[in-house]
């Protein structure tokens, strides 16, 4: 699509980030743990130098994406509640994920239910690692169109549920987690305002990043036929070139749309895929290393969660002040890609552990607005 | 001569190749010889793709990323760029 501007400065209405939250499972897997689990022919040193990843988080068995998403959403609500001004009640839940709790139905309605938001529209969005940027763009357009005024946008994935532990190309790369933002209607001059976006897709590259089986084209057979590959597969070398080109071009499109010189961007948050892809894109754009925010070494690639987890990560912030020019860019399966320009929000982010799973998740009496005292205020991805 | 480095070549493709290999991949200039493979120069598979992407951007030629691999020699890479540049020039330079 052609890049779009949301709300001409001083005149229009757009969506503003009111709160930011994240959810990280407590379980930490070091490179050696992943190598041992899959009997992988690689080393800790190779993974650190070639991918930039040292460790990642994993959910415990039985804890799904919905539990991560719910916790991240609660953290975003706490973040908003602790910020100056009133916190709007969420009136839409959008969950970007590739690993929903079930093939059917979507996970967003249950997340809304757990949050005490029964009745609000809730849906999943499938754009793999571009999911959060897609979701943020869709939600902003829905705010501008009057469909809602305070959407919760969540990026959440438990890729451990679809990884092949013996696949060296993917098993060490991905981690589990969730990130969320609460948006509200506001002006483009406010800190946290979403200002422009660019999205794209190219289905010719469908098989570069894929779970080949288990869908309607190759259904999961009742006898668990071994020929039906239901694990996540990625052709990393080919993905590299597409990712570098698309994220660079999309980022430039958004910067040009706003007339922002690259050196005016204070916070560059790219999908945390691989340090070499991130550096290749940022080098092409001319964004210096200290303005590239990330936590890849600690969390790996958390798919749809990676960008909001960087936004929620106090230790990755590197002094970014509210109102600072911020550029998000992502690339993922589909192929899909997208970029969003915004300014850094006022609210302080929160990070929490996952929600406990319940038998039927019937927590309809839960308040949508949680107490803020129950969450540690400073998120950190460092591990001990 | 096959053993000469490309450092003193007047050809613009050679010069660019040397600049990129030196600047982006930290290859010692004396090692950049036509018979050297990208692996000899210390590039891994992603670095080979990055080299191809960089050459495409510089010369606006349709280098095929999927052909980028560490077994290619410097001579093969420069020949491919030269051939694609000639092809695109033959088509009015709008590759």
From TrEMBL, chain A:
Gene3D superfamilies: 3.40.47.10. Keywords: Acyltransferase, Cytoplasm, Transferase. The keyword RNA-binding does not apply. It holds the Pfam family ACP_syn_III. Residues 255-344 form the Beta-ketoacyl-[acyl-carrier-protein] synthase III C-terminal domain. GO terms for biological process: fatty acid biosynthetic process; secondary metabolite biosynthetic process. The keyword Cell inner membrane does not apply. GO terms for molecular function: 3-oxoacyl-[acyl-carrier-protein] synthase activity. Residues 345-384 are annotated as: Disordered. It comes from the Bacteria. CDD domains: KAS_III. Residues 123-203 form the Beta-ketoacyl-[acyl-carrier-protein] synthase III N-terminal domain. PANTHER family: 3-OXOACYL-[ACYL-CARRIER-PROTEIN] SYNTHASE 3, BETA-KETOACYL-[ACYL-CARRIER-PROTEIN] SYNTHASE III. This is 3-oxoacyl-ACP synthase.
UniProtKB/TrEMBL annotation, chain B:
Coiled coil: none annotated. Pfam families: PP-binding. Signal peptide: none annotated. Residues 11-85 form the Carrier domain. Gene3D superfamilies: ACP-like. This is Carrier domain-containing protein. The lineage of its organism: Bacteria, Bacillati, Actinomycetota, Actinomycetes, Kitasatosporales.
